[in-house]
Amino acid sequence: MSGPGISVVICAYTEDRWEDILAAVSSVRAQSRPALETLLVVDHNETLRERLAKEYKEYREDRGAAGGGVVRVLANAGPRGLSAGRNTGIAAARGEIVAFLDDDAVAERDWLRHFAEAYADPRVMAVGGRTEPVWASGRRPDWFPEEFDWVVGCTYRGLPRGRVRVRNVLGGNASFRRSAFDAAGGFATGIGRDGDKRPLGCEETELCIRLSRARPDAVLLIDDRAVIHHRVPEAREHFRYFRTRAYAEGLSKALVARSVGAEKGLESERRYATRVLPAGVARGLRDALLARPGGAGRAGAIVAGVLTAAGGYVVGSVRARRGGTTFQVPEVEVAARE
Questions:
Q1: Which distant-in-sequence residues (6+ apart) come within 8 Å of 86 by Cβ?
Q2: Nearest to 140 by CA among 149, 131, 153
Q3: Partners of 230 in the beta sheet?
Q4: How far apart are CA 141 and CA 258, in angstroms?
Q5: Cβ contact 193:200 at 8 Å
Q6: pLDDT tens track for 116-128
């Protein structure tokens, strides 16, 4: 295998996603450009860790991993939450590139190949891909606007197409040079998700901005040919979750702005709010006038989503100023590499 070795990190926390986790690992092991290893990081769930360790016992060493790379099962070595789980995977990774895949997603066969090609340019420090929703009901709800697909962890309307430079990649389908973490530190704890608690996010945004400051010459890309398919459970197809996630995003953006400043922290969001979303409202209203299903609902959801996220941002900003919310940027220990 030519090119840099790629370690794939999958963070898991619940046995409820058992079949999804197995499917995610299988999709990594079926890559046209094989991974060096798959690291399953379990978030403070010893029962799940032991079950996964037993499931992948024969793949823990090179001799049992022909064609698909080693599979190692690790316990989250930090505080509960997605950021600390990712940092545990980074610290253990042996590859020059560390890629991240959600535990309820499957990668297309050429996912890692497209990532690897981009790293031929030594300036490239991060590469993300496109994430497509797989709706539990079998189809997108009529009222759910594509501009808000980030609510369910997917690529949303308004992101550039092709292989292009971006401010930040999206964490569930992303990769970084290992040296990026040496330069900027790991994912900040206290920003991202913590199991089934409030669905916060933006930890990858904060990291990418911090990386660009530490390495001004760094190039961050999205290549929409690097595709994964992300399962959207039935509970997330409802407006109640939409509203909860939008509010949590506002809280998270306030933390990002606190860390890196509002100018950089909200740079992409300004374009999104002033250009992408008004166009989405106009499309929804047009569809309503043409009696197309869900047009008025999509327009209303966009307006509601903006107002709810703005409310979360205000609350988060007040809390941050009062010192009620804290987060830390850990250094990531370098794993011993063979």
A1: 9, 11, 41, 100, 171, 186, 187
A2: 149
A3: 105, 133
A4: 35
A5: yes
A6: 999 999 999 999 9
